[in-house]
Amino acid sequence: MRNYVCGHRADTPQDFAELALGTPVELWLGVEGETNEERAARLDAARDILTDPEYRGLPDDLVRLAARVVEDHPDLFNVVPLARPARRRPVRRGAAA
Fold first, then answer.
1. How far from 60 is each of 17, 19, 28, 31, 39, CA to CA, in Å?
2. CA-to-CA distance for 45 and 22, rounded, in angstroms?
């Protein structure tokens, strides 16, 4: 079975992410072993994209995509609920004024 998103074939999860975002994932996440100059150029390109009206909602789209991934695959992130400590009442000493 082949998967298509907006008329484009998506073979891998990375393809789906790229098609959902409209930009390559590497632009936002970087690549392993990139130099400081490559990183600066990548971030500069990302800033330029965010100024384009077509991509103004991209940060919101990224947050929604990340939330969906965490919700669908919590085991990937080893998410564990934290126990809330019980509230302590302040100890009052002496007579009330």
1. 14, 16, 14, 22, 23
2. 14
* Residue reference for tokens 């564990």: 80
The letter for the amino acid at 52 is D
Query: In the chain, helix, strand, coil percent, each to 5?
Result: 55, 5, 45
Lookup result for tokens 């919700």: 71
Q: Give per-residue pLDDT as tens, 37-96.
A: 999 999 998 888 888 888 788 778 778 877 888 788 777 767 667 777 777 777 777 665
* pTM for this prediction: 0.47
Residue showing tokens 């998103």: 5
